[in-house]
Amino acid sequence: MKAVHVVQHTSAEYLGLIEDHLEGRGVRFHYYRPFTEKKTMPKFESIADGLILLGGGPWGSAGTRDLPTLRQEIVLAEACLTNDWPVIGIGLGAQILALASGGKSEPAPLTFEIGAARRTTDKALNGYLPETYPLAIYMRDRPVPPQSASVLALDDKDLPALWQVGKRALGFAGHPGLKVAMVEDLIMEFEESPPDATAGLARLRQLQRPLEDALVPIMTGLVAIAGWMEAPV
Predict the structure, then answer these.
(1) pLDDT over 60 at 230, yes or no
(2) Residue 161: C-alpha distances to residues 47, 137, 140 (Å)
(3) pLDDT in tens, 97-117
(4) Neighbours of 198 (CB within 10 A)
(5) Within 13 A of 135's CA, how many CA atoms are on the CB side?
(6) Is 193 a residue whose pLDDT tops 80?
(7) For residues 114 and 155, is the Cβ–Cβ distance under 8 A?
């Protein structure tokens, strides 16, 4: 049984809808919360099965409000890439993956965007990525994947929404398993919140079911690339 290590950067943001898909496949996951008093982080020798780096609310990586554990997490992501271990970056986690793989992050204000992504190739995520799917981004700064990355989907502004580095690393600009309650909790957890958050929440409520539906094939492809198990029949 695979055991995936998940690094949280806020109390509010977790795997969300992704949890059910991992549990349904018998994939275990363990949360690490370095922002708490225990300051727990995965150990290098424990992450061979896979590492997921989550979003960070108002935390970023481009110099304005950097994540306190940014350097440590870049090192962990570099270890995954060097050893061909699965690593999934979501939001801020995608910025960390970009930095670890030779890309960069660009300064951008904290934003809450609801839009759509469109795939760039029908082979994306082993052919499972939908042609279009809802894209929900709650993030400060922007990841810029390295030139070696394969961009699998673009957002409404033609910016990378999903990309792959090597065989087993994926960067998601938005959280594919985001729940409305997670955003509500993010807004309450921090003094800083993005403009027009109320309008964004209303739009996210409308797209919750389409987002859930799109996550089914996305997780099938993700699990296959990560090598966590064969997709259920």
Answers:
(1) no
(2) 25, 9, 15
(3) 999 999 999 999 999 999 999
(4) 11
(5) 28
(6) yes
(7) no
23 contacts 64 by C-beta, under 8 angstroms: no
pLDDT in tens, 132-183: 999 999 999 999 999 999 999 999 999 999 999 999 999 999 999 999 999 9
For 199, list phi and psi in degrees, rounded to 5: -65, -40
What CATH architecture applies to the domain 3-226? 3-Layer(aba) Sandwich (3.40)
* Alpha carbons 21 and 117: distance in angstroms, whole number: 21
In tens, the pLDDT along 6-15 reads 999 999 999 9
